[in-house]
Amino acid sequence: MAESEFLRITDLHSFYGESHILHGVDLTVNRGEVVTLLGRNGAGRTTTLKSIMGLVGRRTGSIMINGVESVNLPPHKIARLGIGYCPEERGIFASLNCEENLLLPPEVASGGMSIEEIYQMFPNLEERRLSPGTRLSGGEQQMLSVARILRTGATLLLLDEISEGLAPVIVSALSRAIHLLREKGLTIVMVEQNFRFAAPLADRLYVMEHGRIVEGFTAPELEAKMDLLHEYLGV
Questions:
Q1: Is residue 100 exposed (0-12), middle (13-18) or buried (19+ Cβ within 10 Å)?
Q2: What is the largest CA-CA distance in the chain?
Q3: CB 206, CB 216: distance < 8 Å
Q4: Rounded to the nearest 5°, which phi and psi values hold at 100?
Q5: CA-CA distance, 140 to 97, in Å (whole number)?
Q6: Which residue ranges form the domains of the chain, and what is each CATH number?
Q7: What are phi and psi of 220, to 5 degrees?
Q8: What is the pTM of this model?
Q9: Which residues, including other chains, have CB under 8 Å from residue 142's CB and lie 6 or more apart?
């Protein structure tokens, strides 16, 4: 494993029952990088995140996390390798208030952010800390969903469509949070439909189509790739 590599996926095939979704995905994510997976709906981006977490029916190939082969590990053991997953559906507990939701996840590693640090990053959550989960706006729920995994000590964050359907002011707050997390040395893999949100944050970008990576490039190459992205994504 290269010194800076945190995640290396090689020839990954993933299945839900008889449905073959990923067809030989290869990608690497270096320590401290923000990597964005781009693609149309159904391209296999969310399945890639779920496959890293072991949340699909069957996986073949290799998923090396921090030097550990994880393709045959159950999800709870994968989480303990320092992985935090923020799914598109958020999973906020309606019967708990904001702070109780925040305190719920167990530690997977030492070094997680304190409640105070999280409230500095997301002041809205401190204001709403005693509000029931159901009373939070969509944007506040999304902030809570991201904040919750920061307490766990996870050092690789998998973020699925965190900007979807949110007001611009919330999207800006999430963008600032990701910049701060990168400065803290966290590694982030994002699935995003919102190109304008994702592109300025990413160190590297991969384009997926039909369950495969069809293109990969770095942020400085982005401008030269815009015609290609328009072809794949319509951006």
A1: middle
A2: 49
A3: yes
A4: -65, -40
A5: 12
A6: 5-233 (3.40.50.300)
A7: -60, -20
A8: 0.92
A9: 90, 162, 166, 170, 174
pLDDT in tens, 91-106: 888 889 999 999 988 8
CB neighbour burial string for 33-56, b if at least 16 within 10 angstroms, e if fewer: bbbbbbbeeebbbbbbbbbbbbbb
The crossing angle, in degrees rounded to 10, of helices 138-150 and 168-183 is 10
Residue showing tokens 């699925």: 160
Higher pLDDT, 159 or 164: 159
CA 35 to chain centroid, in Å, comes to: 9
70 closest CA partner among 52, 87, 84, 85: 52
Angle at the Cα of 190 from the Cα atoms of 45 and 115, rounded to 5 degrees: 135
SS3 of 84, please? strand
